[in-house]
Structure formats: C-alpha cells, structure tokens
C-alpha cells in the first residue's frame, strides 16, 4: 500500500462525520476524485456521486461506501454542567467509560470525556455489570448548564470518538471510524484505477448508514444501477478468547465477502463474479462467517425493481468502538478485488 493511500486513510479516519453531518469526509472524497470523475454531484440528503462514463450499452455498477460513523447526540444538559447523550449507531456501553469525545463547536473543536461513578463508591452488585448507556454522561469541564452552553455545547449537537490515526508498524494501522472510512478509501482507489476504462461506474459516498442504511436507499433509487457493491469495514474477531466458529473474519486473510447478513443475501451473479475474480487474480479472500449486521447493500438491493448486490469488506478489529485495527495488506487486496469485479461484471 502506497504512502498516498495511507495518507488518505489517515485523513478519512480523522475526519469528523456523525450520521447526518458527513461534510468533512464528503469534502475529502470530493478533493480526491473530482479531477478524475466525468461528473460529481451531491443529492438532497448529502450523498455524493462520482460518475465514470465508459462505453454506451455497458451495464452500470454502483459502488457504495458510507461516510458516517457511530456518534453521540447531546440530549440534555444537567444543571451541574454534565451532558447526557444518546448513541447514533450501534455502540455498546461496555466500551464507553473513559472515552474521549470531540464535538465540532462553532469556532473550534470542543472536547469531553465519558464519565461514570468512581469504582470506589459502587455497590458489589454494580461492580459486576457494565453501566447502562443512560447512566453515562460526558464531562466537558463545565460547572453549570450555562457554562456548558457558553462553551458552545447545545442539545442536538453530535460528537464522535476523539482518536488519532496511528501506524502500529508491520502494516497494522489504528484509528477511529474504519467502518467505513477504509471503505471510502478503497472506493476512491478503485475509482481512480478505472480511469480510462470502458466501465460505467458510479461511486457513491453515502450518508446515515449507521442509523439504518438510509442514504444508500435514495442514492440507489436515483441511479438505478445494474449491479451494486457495498464496500465496508467489517468486524474481525481474530482475538484471544474467540472460538473458531465465532471468528467471522480475520486480519491478513484478505477481503471479506458476504454471502448473507441480516440485511441482504448476496446476488448469485455478484457472489460468483467476486469469487472468480479473486481466484483469477490470485487474491486471498474469506467469507463472512457470522450472518450478523447489515450494510448499504441491504437497502440498495430492494430499490426499484431490485438491484443485484453484494458486500465486500476490509476486516477490522473492534469496529463500533473507539478505535479499530486493520492491516494495509487487506485494504490493498480489497481494492484489487473490487477493481477486478467492476471490469469483469461488464464483460
Ligand atoms: Zn459500516
């Protein structure tokens, strides 16, 4: 994986993009692809479309990568200045205590930390179980609601995990929002690599996936493609304590191809094409072993008269938590597989 690719992943991972506020990752994708796209437009919900026009009569392939990330919506400010919040997207309370959260203030980023009662004052019973999300709060260093508001916090504001992208060495990288900013990076790379080809391709950075695959639905309706692929960061479970049958995906075993999850059964032609491409190109690949979760393909395939769809993902550990770990080799191989897929499905 080149230095430029890693730079893009870093920018995308560090970008601020809660569901419904995807401006930053959208701007990064725009800067990255507008010079190579035949047409760029943003729809009313905020999805961004990059068109590559190839030969007439060729089928159109849609690639979708969501730009949003799990986030926290401020729902109440206590008189004492602490913020109550509601998660946007699937976050478990177990990962929350002690996490740093960043908000986009009007002038500058605003910061806080997720607080809990100190362990010293917990009852025996309370110590045994993780706190419920409703019991948690964000400490922003304010002594009253007025002070929190003066600092720039308000009800309806959204924040995300405050984590910086880091290279861990040996190809391993660590950062927030790999679900799905690694997918955005893969999509950008594939789009560029197909410059000058005869393929009809529309790459879409979608909005609001984490809260119910929403942007992808209206995006697919507008372009009604012949085939679609959702590009994702999916959960890898190759960690101590996880049993082989629970290890849905592993790092360094290549792109993860979904056969079925909770939102879609991969279309046989899409699935077969992915497998033959991987075999023909000598690329490693793995099937997603746990049929959990959903991706944009769940919305896309039910659009209009039905769109043959599938999902290919980069395996990432600890997604939907504050920080994920992925390997550059998997990101690279995912891009190569999808590039081969787009070329082959059209021939
Ligand atoms: Zn995702």
Topology:
Blueprint: H1 3-14, H2 23-33, E1 39-42, E2 48-52, E3 60-66, E4 71-77, E5 83-88, E6 100-104, E7 109-115, H3 124-128, E8 137-139, H4 145-151, E9 158-161, E10 166-169, E11 172-175, H5 178-193, E12 200-206, H6 214-223, E13 227-236, E14 256-257, H7 268-281, E15 286-287, H8 296-300, E16 309-317, E17 324-327, H9 328-345
Parallel strand pairs: 3-12, 3-13, 13-16, 14-15
Antiparallel strand pairs: 1-2, 2-12, 4-5, 4-9, 6-7, 6-9, 7-8, 10-11, 11-17, 14-16
The structure holds zinc ion.
Feature tags:
Aminopeptidase; 347 residues; Elongation Factor Tu (Ef-tu), domain 3; six-stranded antiparallel beta sheet; eight-stranded mixed beta sheet; 26% strand
Give your account of this protein's structure.
By secondary structure, the protein is of the alpha+beta class. The chain contains nine helices and 17 strands. It has helices spanning 3-14, 23-33, 124-128, 145-151, 178-193, 214-223, 268-281, 296-300, 328-345; strands spanning 39-42, 48-52, 60-66, 71-77, 83-88, 100-104, 109-115, 137-139, 158-161, 166-169, 172-175, 200-206, 227-236, 256-257, 286-287, 309-317, 324-327. The strands form three sheets. Strands 1-2-12-3-13-16-14-15 form an eight-stranded mixed beta sheet, with helices on both faces. Strands 5-4-9-6-7-8 form a six-stranded antiparallel beta sheet. Strand 4 (71-77) and strand 5 form a beta hairpin. Bound molecules: zinc ion. Zinc ion binds at residues 66, 179-180, 209, 232-233. Residues 66, 179-180, 209, 232-233 line the site of zinc ion.
Counting DSSP H or I runs of 4 or more residues, the number of helices is: 9
Task: Describe the main β-sheet briefly.
Answer: 8 strands, mixed
User: Based on CA inertia axes, which overall geometry fits?
Assistant: globular
The residue fraction in helices comes out at: 25-40%
């Amino acid at each position: 994986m080149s230095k430029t690719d890693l730079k893009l992943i870093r920018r995308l991972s560090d970008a601020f993009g809660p569901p419904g506020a995807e401006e930053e990752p959208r701007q990064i994708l725009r800067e990255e692809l507008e010079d190579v796209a035949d047409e760029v437009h943003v729809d009313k919900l905020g999805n961004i479309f990059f068109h590559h026009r190839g030969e007439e009569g060729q089928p159109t392939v849609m690639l979708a990568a969501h730009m949003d990330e799990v986030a926290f919506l401020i729902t109440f400010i206590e008189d004492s200045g602490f913020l109550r919040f509601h998660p946007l997207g699937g976050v478990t309370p177990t990962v929350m205590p002690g996490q740093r959260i960043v908000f986009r203030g009007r002038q500058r980023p605003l910061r806080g930390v997720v607080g809990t009662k100190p362990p010293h004052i917990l009852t025996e019973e309370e110590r045994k179980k993780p706190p419920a999300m409703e019991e948690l709060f964000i400490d922003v260093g304010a002594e009253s609601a007025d002070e929190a508001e003066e600092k720039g916090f308000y009800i309806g504001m959204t924040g995300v995990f405050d984590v910086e992208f880091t290279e861990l060495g040996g190809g391993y990288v660590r950062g927030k929002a790999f679900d799905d900013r690694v997918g955005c990076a893969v999509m950008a790379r594939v789009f560029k690599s197909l410059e000058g080809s005869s393929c009809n391709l529309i790459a879409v950075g979608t909005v609001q996936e984490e809260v119910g695959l929403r942007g992808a639905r209206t995006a697919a309706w507008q372009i009604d493609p012949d085939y679609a692929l959702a590009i994702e960061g999916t959960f890898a479970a190759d960690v101590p304590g996880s049993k082989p049958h629970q290890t849905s995906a592993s790092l360094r075993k290549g792109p993860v191809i979904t056969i079925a999850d909770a939102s879609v059964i991969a279309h046989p032609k899409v699935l077969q094409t992915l497998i033959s491409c991987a075999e023909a190109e000598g690329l490693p690949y793995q099937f997603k072993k746990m049929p959990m979760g959903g991706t944009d393909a769940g919305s896309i395939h039910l659009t209009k008269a039905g769109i043959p769809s599938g999902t290919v993902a980069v395996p990432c550990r600890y997604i939907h938590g504050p920080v994920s770990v992925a390997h550059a080799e998997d990101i690279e191989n995912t891009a190569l597989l999808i590039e081969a897929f787009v070329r082959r499905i059209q021939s």
